[in-house]
């Protein structure tokens, strides 16, 4: 995706605007290459008091051989560099020290979790499925969250927008007021883990 950044936008700014306008807390897991491609956006997110930045590896390579449809980590990259290079670029752009990590496609072994922990970051998973990565319609994404998520759930959506997540903005525009109307307290991962 990074190589396509000048031809295809990797971010749907409507999602960022929506989060800011509604003051919706969110943890944004960023790839290092995404931070490299969009430094001003990373700085904008870092200034938002409702947003928490976290690590999503350098280039979204697969950590396990069985990770579906993903290119595995290959030289010169290593597991260590996947974590540390992203932490370094975000720190350089924002001064923020990242403390949470999400494996690409959630593919990581227990040994990988321990490895990331030894580097000072806590691995985060997901407890319900949003569906934007599969190009689900906004209605299907909303239904999946309303029926499959509950108190304490970690809901993973993507900032990419079309063509990678074409209906995310529409789904979130429906879900954010729905969460509030149903007394859900939307929080960052850090807040969730501290409560």
* Count of individual domains: 2
| Strand percent estimate | 5-15%
CATH architectural grouping of the largest domain: Alpha-Beta Barrel
Mean pLDDT: 93
Strand pairing plus helix content: what structural class?
A: mainly alpha
Strand order of the largest sheet: 1-2
Gross morphology: globular
Quote the distance from N terminus to C terminus: 36 Å
Order of helices and strands: HEHHEHEHEHHH
Share of helix among residues?
A: 40-55%
Structure description:
The chain has 195 residues and is mainly alpha-helical. The protein has two domains: 10-125, Glycoside hydrolase/deacetylase (TIM Barrel); 129-186, no CATH class. 42% of the residues lie in helices and 7% in strands. The protein contains eight helices and four strands. The chain has a two-stranded parallel sheet. Strands 3-4 form a two-stranded parallel ribbon. Helix 1 (13-22) packs parallel to helix 7 (168-181). The radius of gyration is 16 Å and the shape is globular. The model has no long low-confidence stretch (mean pLDDT 93).
